[in-house]
Write a structure and sequence with these properties.
about 40% helix; alpha/beta; 7-stranded parallel β-sheet; 22 helices
Length: about 475
């Protein structure tokens, strides 16, 4: 028997919580305490249609896999489905449609910044808040990029560079350039196909994709999206606090063909990403548009009521790691300092990845530089990778010269696929390869093995202070 929206709306509490997804009605009351992102996210949509918020952050079929059949109550009434389609679009949806119509052609994208500018215009408010957020005042994120401007090249001349080969191997798997896609979550926030765009683009360009634990596509779906069975995929693991659950996930990705596990160890709790936290769910935005002219007594007392509510400082990012293991140690097992890099080597890992997780600590390339100066022996024992702040092929060359085997990009890839889908990611890789090849020739490096620490130097300086004239 079909259910009406009015019937669903009556079940809007933690005692009885129904939601609608893709016109199907579900009873999620018993699932509330088990939801990986916590119950509050679901309760925001209790008694409502949660499709818009649900689809971009969950793989297909996940709700039917999590709930027993008796919790799938039935289909939404046909009249209500038609009425839903007649709802007015929000200002944000209208803005996104306008920007999509007016965006420049892909051929006009000449660098990664061009792709990001387009993406920032066409992304939803909520998606941009997640993709662009970083810790506190976002200083570390900006310094991630600025740190590369403090490293300068010392090129060699009169070297044969008529043929330049930027190819390398990452954990034994070939890569066209010393670049891979870092694990970055929720690509469907930016494009309906999500991570599939990235998988296919990487396969065609012969570089490696690291799939996030919080991918908006299923791990099996991405394995099937590969252009061939030989295309390697790596997996970025947020370890669940339940060891059996974590082991089951590792076994699953191994069985479907993933070739390496990158264990994230620097996000036991989510940092204070205020831009993300402040962003409202899509449902709140719709309601705000419908009721924006209403002013009632309830509205006037809202400030007092909200002040009494418990502060929710998670946002989209925080919800993704709500059930992660916060007690990991080296004895049980992204590196942010030299000392931890040494401990990782002693723990017997095959590689370490230097990352400040999108902007929460010292710039990654500064840590890489310190590691090269203080413990150069580490580079002989394990492969070293790095991500954070990379926007140019020359940034890649600086990292490789300092000893990194390859360099990861996360945020720029999300922006590229948001703006132009698979073609956007392919364009990003083409841009980087062009810049890497040109940079190697100018450095006098015909191959990756010619990129050595002597070719770079860190120069710390402050711009001259400008004084106002009286």
């Amino acid at each position: 028997m079909p259910y009406t929206l009015e019937q669903v709306a009556q079940h809007n509490s933690k005692e009885s919580c129904w939601i609608v997804i893709e016109n199907q009605v579900y009873d999620v009351t018993d699932f509330l305490p088990e939801h990986p992102g916590g119950s509050k996210i679901i309760l925001n949509f209790a008694g409502k249609d949660a499709t818009e918020a649900f689809n971009p952050v969950h793989p297909p079929g996940v709700i039917d896999a999590q709930l027993s059949r008796d919790k799938h109550l039935g289909r939404l009434d046909g009249k209500d489905i038609k009425d839903k389609m007649k709802q007015p679009k929000t200002n944000d949806e209208l803005r996104m449609e306008r920007e999509q119509r007016n965006k420049p052609s892909l051929g006009k994208m000449h660098n990664l910044r061009d792709l990001e500018i387009v993406a920032r215009k066409i992304l939803s408010y909520k998606a941009l808040a997640y993709y662009a957020s970083a810790t506190d005042d976002e200083v570390a994120m900006e310094e991630n990029r600025r740190a590369f401007s403090r490293i300068f090249f010392l090129p060699r001349v009169m070297r044969p560079v008529s043929t330049v080969d930027p190819s390398t191997n990452i954990l034994g798997y070939p890569s066209r350039i010393p670049v891979f896609v870092s694990g970055a979550a929720l690509a469907k926030l930016g494009h309906p196909l999500g991570e599939v765009n990235i998988t296919r683009a990487c396969g065609l360009a012969n570089i490696i994709q690291m799939v996030s634990s919080n991918s908006s596509c299923s791990f099996a779906e991405l394995a099937q999206a590969r252009i061939s069975k030989d295309q390697p995929l790596f997996f970025q693991l947020y370890k669940n606090k339940n060891d059996e659950t974590a082991m089951a996930r590792v076994k699953h990705v191994e069985e479907i063909g993933y070739k390496a596990i990158f264990l994230t160890v620097d996000a036991v709790v989510m940092s204070n990403r205020e831009r993300d936290i402040k962003a409202k769910p899509a449902d709140e935005d719709k309601e705000a548009k419908v009721h924006e002219l209403e002013e009632t007594a309830t509205e006037k007392t809202r400030g007092t009521e909200e002040a009494e509510e418990e502060y929710d400082g998670d946002g989209t990012a925080g919800a993704l790691i709500a059930n992660d293991d916060r007690d990991m140690t080296w004895e049980k097992a992204r590196i942010q300092c030299v000392d931890d890099a040494v401990l990782a080597v002693e723990a017997g890992v095959d590689g370490i990845m230097i990352s400040n997780h999108g902007g929460s600590s010292m710039p990654s390339v500064d840590v890489l530089f310190k590691l090269r100066k203080q413990r150069p022996d580490v580079f002989d024992k394990v492969e070293v990778y790095i991500d954070g702040g990379v926007r140019r092929g020359t940034d890649v060359l600086k990292c490789v010269s300092l000893g990194a085997r390859a360099v990861g990009l996360g945020r720029p890839v999300l922006f590229a696929q948001s703006a132009y889908g698979e073609a956007g990611v392919r364009r990003l890789i083409q841009i980087l390869e062009r810049e890497i090849r040109a940079g190697m020739a100018l450095l006098g490096a015909a191959s990756i093995k010619d990129l050595k620490p002597e070719l770079v130097e860190q120069v710390n300086f402050q711009p001259a202070q400008m004084f106002a004239k009286l």
